[in-house]
Design goal:
Blueprint lengths: L32 E2 L4 E2 L11 H9 L5 H38 L8 H11 L9 E6 L9 E5 L2 E5 L7 E5 L3 E7 L2 E2 L2 E2 L2 E6 L4 E4 L6 H17 L6
Length: about 230
């Protein structure tokens, strides 16, 4: 049996080959791919072309051996992973450069306890250390238990001063951003609003970082993901 490690990369690149193009939801990702779980949303009923062993029996068994077929599929997997690693490396450099350009300093994420808490509490265990671009810590003891984390693919927020106390917004899902300037009982409650392409709205009211500069960073991050493979890294 073919051993799939469920990385999801093949499901995110269906637009690159003719045999899978009919599954493209419009951005190269399979229309059945569940981005929240990184898994197929119709796994038990997925098309035959997404079933390695069944595809071999139906289309290839008279042409090559099963082991050769497996080898070709593993090679394709490895190619996708190498391309993704290269892309992520370049993407991180682009984000770090943009962050420094906007905010005037390089983000520092060297405190192991802060990073560990930020990943576990703010990111809810859904990101990794090497994916972090910056941590905006709002905790009293600067231990990474509240605030905002910018990563390679998402903005994570958990802050007591935020009207939405905990959320994850993927850059690719951000449709628009807007600075909502407002006051309540004489107190400035200006927030950066994120509108997603699936109808959800989030608010970031963290005061430790310029909301306008943050808006520009998120607009930049969103534009990179919208352009995806059109980019020349």
């Amino acid at each position: 049996m073919f051993n799939c490690d469920q990385c999801g990369l093949c499901c995110k690149k269906v637009g690159v080959t003719e045999q899978y193009k009919h599954l493209d939801r419009g951005d190269g990702v399979c229309l059945h791919f569940d981005t929240s779980t990184n898994l197929c949303g119709i796994y038990e009923d997925r098309p035959v072309i997404c079933r390695v062993d069944e595809s071999y029996d139906l289309f290839f068994k008279d042409q090559i051996s099963l082991q050769e077929f497996y080898s070709l599929n593993y090679k394709a997997c490895d190619t996708l992973k190498r391309l993704e690693l290269h892309k992520m490396s370049d993407l991180k450099l682009a984000f770090e450069d943009k962050f420094e350009e906007l905010f005037g300093y390089k983000p520092w994420n060297g405190d192991e306890k802060q990073v560990r808490n930020a990943l576990e509490i703010i990111c809810q265990g859904k990101s990794k250390k090497d994916e972090i671009i910056a941590i905006i810590d709002t905790s009293i003891s600067t231990n990474g238990k509240s605030g905002m984390v910018l990563t390679l693919d998402s903005v994570y927020v958990k802050d007591a001063g935020n009207s939405t106390s905990k959320f994850i917004a993927k850059y690719e899902d951000i449709e628009s951003t807007y600075i909502n300037e407002d006051r309540f009982l004489g107190v400035d409650i200006t927030a950066l609003e994120l509108n997603t392409n699936y109808g959800t709205q989030y608010r970031i009211s963290i005061d430790k970082i310029s909301k306008r500069k943050l808006m520009e960073f998120l607009d930049y991050a969103s534009s990179l993901y919208q352009e995806d493979d059109k980019l020349e890294w």
